[in-house]
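Quick one, tokens below. Sequence please?
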């Protein structure tokens, strides 16, 4: 059972007590990602994620890492198109230390120019690594193909050109306008005692934050073909279809459909094109659900000589499933697989924290868009 409360400054908290565990996961979810950026700011959300680990007014970057390592805990963060998450997983006795470190990073980061210049170089290396991974890079190309030169179509990492223009003052101003009480959710899952909300109030509730409600850029599906040439052995193909948004209840039906069609080694795409014909190394399908928009992708990697045939086969599988639908047995097996994955995933406090935090955050953000 989840408890939902609001701190004095408007930050919302969702907490799930699991008293038979000895661990607790705490995540700070911010309704901000690359979809909230202008073209000039492209990459700033991900840059901020990096910089909040580089030291605060009372902790160095090494202090942050050491305090978590010394208690055998885990700490990390990730940036997506519509949100950023900073999280810890520790023994339940260290919940207050986790709250202290996370709030310190969030509200008191130094954003030192020298640190920023060093971390910019790290992100340039990350961009280079991404460029050297065609199976990942192709998804950025497909996003540009369907969303165009808009925030949803630009890369989460940004570009070297955009990142070079970001200064400490620009980052501070962005943090002030986008990390607000209206779009921060704290999600907790695991064992904690009755002092949890007092602790969160102490470390998060006293921060003075704007109550602005940042709104993500609109997204309009306008597909076109884009070819990016690289000197590699394989060709990576992504076909993208207009999808459904994150609040559409049919997203669950889509998950069941894709378990049969394009997810896992037993799906139709994998069995019919890789296993039976050996024409690809990798092939899969998946759906990306956003606020007010969505995209369904079919991706495959193959020898360039097989491109035309693989494309025809994929289109044939699409036509076949539209014509013949799924069988009752396929639907039954998909449901059982989803149930198994869901229940096994829910044996982790980290997974439970992420599911609750993401759901609550996107619900409130989506309501703000209406």
């Amino acid at each position: 059972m989840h408890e939902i409360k609001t701190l004095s400054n408007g930050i919302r908290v969702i907490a799930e007590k699991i008293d038979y565990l000895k661990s607790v996961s705490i995540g700070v979810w911010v309704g901000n990602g690359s979809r909230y950026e202008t073209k000039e700011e492209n990459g700033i959300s991900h840059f901020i994620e990096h910089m909040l680990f580089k030291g605060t007014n009372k902790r160095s970057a090494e202090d942050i890492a050491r305090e978590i390592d010394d208690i055998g805990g885990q700490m990390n963060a990730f940036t997506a198109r519509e949100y950023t998450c900073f999280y810890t997983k520790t023994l339940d006795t260290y919940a207050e230390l986790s709250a202290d470190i996370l709030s310190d990073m969030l509200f008191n980061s130094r954003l030192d120019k020298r640190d920023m210049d060093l971390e910019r170089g790290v992100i340039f290396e990350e961009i280079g690594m991404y460029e050297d991974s065609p199976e990942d890079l192709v998804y950025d190309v497909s996003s540009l193909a369907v969303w165009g030169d808009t925030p949803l179509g630009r890369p989460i990492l940004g570009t070297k050109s955009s990142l070079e223009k970001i200064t400490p003052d620009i980052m501070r101003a962005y943090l002030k306008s986008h990390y607000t009480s209206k779009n921060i959710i704290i999600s907790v899952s695991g064992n904690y005692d009755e002092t949890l909300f007092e602790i969160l109030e102490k470390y998060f509730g006293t921060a003075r934050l704007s109550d602005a409600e940042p709104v993500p850029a609109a997204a309009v599906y306008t597909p076109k073909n884009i070819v990016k040439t690289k000197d590699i052995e394989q060709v990576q193909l992504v076909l993208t279809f207009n999808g459904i948004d994150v609040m559409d209840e049919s997203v669950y039906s889509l998950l069941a459909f894709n378990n049969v069609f394009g997810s896992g080694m037993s799906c139709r795409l994998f069995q019919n094109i890789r296993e039976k014909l050996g024409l690809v190394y990798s092939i899969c399908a998946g759906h990306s659900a956003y606020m007010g928009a969505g995209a369904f992708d079919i991706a495959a990697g193959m020898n360039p000589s097989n491109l035309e045939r693989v494309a025809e086969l994929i289109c044939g599988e699409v036509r076949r499933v539209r014509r013949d639908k799924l069988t009752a047995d396929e639907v039954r097996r998909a449901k059982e697989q989803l149930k198994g994955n869901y229940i096994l995933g829910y044996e982790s406090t980290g997974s439970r924290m992420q599911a609750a935090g993401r759901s609550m955050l996107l619900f409130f953000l989506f309501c703000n868009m209406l």
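The longest helix spans residues 349-369. The chain has a mean pLDDT of 95.
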